[in-house]
Amino acid sequence: MPQDASPFDPLPTPEEIAGWDQASVAECGMSFLTLMENASREAYHALVGEVGEVAGKRVLLLAGPGNNGGDAVALARHLHNRSADVTLALARPRGRYTGAAGYNVRLAARLGLPMIPLAKADLSGAGAPDVIVDGLLGTGFRGALRPDMAAVVEAVNRLAGRSYIFALDIPSGLDGLHGRPSPVAVRADATVTFEAAKTGLAAAPAAPFVGKLLVRDIGIPTLIKERHPCRAGRIAPRVMGLIGPADPLLHKGSAGRVVVVGGSRGLTGAPLLAGLTALRAGSGLVSVACPGAVEIALKAGYPDVMTMPMGTGGHFTAAEAQAVREFAAGAGALALGPGLGRHPDTAGFLANLLPLPCPVVLDADALHFLADDRELAAKVGENAVMTPHPGEAARLLGKDIPGVEADRMASARELAARYGCVAVLKGPATVVATPEGYVAVSPVIAPNLAVGGSGDVLSGLLASLLARHLSPLLAASLAVYWHGRAGEALADAYPARGNLASEIADMLPRAATE
């Protein structure tokens, strides 16, 4: 798929982005100096876009010892040319900067730009500058900040609200791979990152530090990115284009049939939410196959979702598996697990039900049984998508929750590889992974999604998209992004949260067009 048509923006690791830089020089004859000049110009335009005219503004630029510091020095030159009152605070003696960074330091000196040692920068708050540019440490930073650098970071953060804090490539102190502070990091108002967002910038822990993320192209050739593809992508807004316009000749039979299999005593809301969501997502026919004793409670007065009672009990048993298989014949997709319950008899039901010929969303209690039964797990199949939250993922992987959350991309990859299907690791900055190891990360962090039943909404949405014959990866990525946009839209009406899961489903049609 051509890059400009892909629903994913590249999301390289720090090592992969460094490889792009090196390959641009080695394979295309570009220079690091050109890349630094491009980065500094893009940083200038991004900063002006955020703070407006810079003439007369006092700008303190903190330049670290490496290329990130070189970007800051080059940016100072552009700001100086536009009549900003700039001061460069250098982390090392002027003569110890090398390469492209050294060139820019020498050029700045010839132009008479004011330079002081970083240790002498006034970060006390007395006469705070209008803008502080953080060019201390780049995406290659690892380990823990030295005490002196940590003190600078903390001093910068104390000026929040008085100075506009603008980070180059990544806020200093933030791990470029996982997005965690080490142990502190600059809390930027905005971060301009070059060529592509890095994996750490897309991680949920990074959000309080990154501020507004601005991605700017610095001229890495497309050829290089094609020769050296990264193993992750950031789900882009253009993924919504996969929904496509409605066929004017569409009828309910051709709009997609979804079957939700779930429900048990006390757990009837989950399958109903999944079914209602599939309808809100555009499916033409949606039915819930449920245990016979819970049908009336599950229906709950909703005429929109059809129900099919199976047996007379309050939970599924092996005896109902064949009837469910027959009822689901011809369905475009099936959502399995919402409200299924954990009765021991239900394990036999799943063993007799799987595999199914249509795409399957595995969620909630279906995942509980998968974690216990290797033979059942072997029946999942490549046309399935599993959607665990961190607790369920921990059980599926035999880990604890902190172990899953320590590296969410790695955990999602492990789930997908172990179970042979696309895995959706839910949570802020949800991760979608394929068995081959590609991951797509959602850019959306929406607190309004943090409500019981939100996962059932996602299951119904995902089943609806699978019924449109999208691949598991594309269906999962679109579902995650669309679900997130609905959560963001709800924040306008419920800024302190308090929305219901059903309102996430109700917001989907509007979120698809805004």
TrEMBL record:
Cofactor needs: Mg(2+); K(+)
Record keywords, A-Z: ATP-binding, Isomerase, Lyase, Metal-binding, Multifunctional enzyme, NAD, NADP, Nucleotide-binding, Potassium
E.C. numbers: 4.2.1.136, 5.1.99.6
Domain YjeF N-terminal: start-end pairs: 17-226
Binding of AMP, residues: 426-430, 455
Cofactor mode of binding and number, as noted: Binds 1 potassium ion per subunit.
Chain residues that bind (6S)-NADPHX: 67-71, 138-144, 169, 270, 339, 389, 456
PROSITE patterns: YJEF_C_2, YJEF_C_3, YJEF_N
One of the GO biological process terms: metabolite repair
Positions annotated to bind K(+): 68, 134, 172
Catalytic reaction equation(s): (6R)-NADHX = (6S)-NADHX; (6S)-NADPHX + ADP = AMP + phosphate + NADPH + H(+); (6R)-NADPHX = (6S)-NADPHX; (6S)-NADHX + ADP = AMP + phosphate + NADH + H(+)
GO molecular function: ADP-dependent NAD(P)H-hydrate dehydratase activity; ATP binding; metal ion binding; NAD(P)HX epimerase activity
Pfam families the UniProt entry points to: Carb_kinase, YjeF_N
Record-annotated YjeF C-terminal domain positions: 235-514
Its biological purpose: Catalyzes the dehydration of the S-form of NAD(P)HX at the expense of ADP, which is converted to AMP. Together with NAD(P)HX epimerase, which catalyzes the epimerization of the S- and R-forms, the enzyme allows the repair of both epimers of NAD(P)HX, a damaged form of NAD(P)H that is a result of enzymatic or heat-dependent hydration.
Family statement: Belongs to the NnrE/AIBP family.
NCBIfam families: yjeF_cterm, yjeF_nterm
Subunit structure: Homotetramer.
Protein known as: Bifunctional NAD(P)H-hydrate repair enzyme
Organism, scientific name: Solidesulfovibrio carbinolicus
Lineage, top ranks: Bacteria, Pseudomonadati, Thermodesulfobacteriota, Desulfovibrionia, Desulfovibrionales
